[in-house]
Amino acid sequence: MPGELAPLAQAFFASAPELSLQALGSGVHVPSLDLAPYGIPVTHLLAEHNAELARQYLTLNQLAFGGIGVPRWVLSDLYLLPGAIGLLRCPARLLKAPARERLLLADEELAIGAACYVAPSLTPGLFVGVSLFSFLPGRGASAWVKLLTLGMVRAKRLRGITQWDNPAVRVHSRLGPMRLVGRVPGGHDYDERTFVYETDLRDEARVAQAMLRGDAPAPATRIPVTDLLSLGALLDRAEGGARLELVPPGQDDGHVLVRELPPG
Ligand SMILES: CC(C)(COP(=O)(O)OP(=O)(O)OC[C@H]1O[C@@H](n2cnc3c(N)ncnc32)[C@H](O)[C@@H]1OP(=O)(O)O)[C@@H](O)C(=O)NCCC(=O)NCCS
Predict the structure, then answer these.
(1) Which domain of life is it from (predicted)?
(2) Ligand 1 midpoint to CA 79 (Å)
(3) Residue 100: left (phi > 0), alpha (psi -120 to 50), or beta?
(4) For residues 114 and 88, is the Cβ–Cβ distance under 8 A?
(5) In the structure, what pLDDT confidence band is assigned to residue 2 with cuts at 50, 70 and 90?
(6) What is the rounded CA–CA span in Å between residue 95 and residue 100?
(7) 146: Cβ below 6 Å to ligand 1?
(8) Cβ of 12 below 6 Å from ligand 1
(9) Can you give the pLDDT at residue 213?
């Protein structure tokens, strides 16, 4: 039975007919993937035979993340061998300028417009958000490529890492409330403003509401993204078992929106 997300996904692609959904990964995993997440067909491209596309991904990832962009061996060993990257492809002319200039493609050549990689973890159903980027601003492209990639790998829950002040918080909260987990295991280059969150994807109706920003705004405490003392204290409490979450839209005018749930 089609769920609540299929019509939204179809509406997204109807509004952007130049976009298509693809996956790049090792052939061995193809039978494990859902190649029609929320009814959207995915063309799977074998990473073994598409080195040029892998190189394009590498270039754009390094452009999006600067100094912490993915090294080539990590792309092979930890992205393409164990999993598959979800890609929104589009004509190169649609890309934001730095990406268009870097790729040197003709206007109508197919380029990666947005991409998401989530890594499998030891816990069944739990995936780890590793790399999300978009060079197609203003269309919700990164929220869609993230959701469709998670559907493709059949994720039930996601743990991700982000920064309080990263505009991506608004994107991540499109998939629902972001439960605060704590600090990054092993530390992070941007440790003082970085945290781990978890999104539960099991309730499709709830995810659909969040994608639409259809929920009435939940009562939330607003904390400036620069108040690292208060935000660090929140992480201490989350690590101690408090049920804290960022409520959609996650971030507003330089603040994060935090709610505490009763113990449960
Ligand atoms: C974060 C990123 C993925 C968003 O890409 P996108 O989906 O094309 O961005 P959009 O233009 O659709 O905007 C997405 C949301 O962010 C908000 N946003 C975008 N730029 C913003 C900015 N500079 N300041 C505040 N909010 C911003 C938009 O208002 C939108 O919010 P809404 O969905 O509630 O309306 C993209 O900027 C990127 O690739 N950044 C570099 C890599 C990165 O940081 N990835 C995330 C790692 S956690």
Answers:
(1) Bacteria
(2) 23
(3) alpha
(4) yes
(5) low
(6) 6
(7) no
(8) no
(9) 92
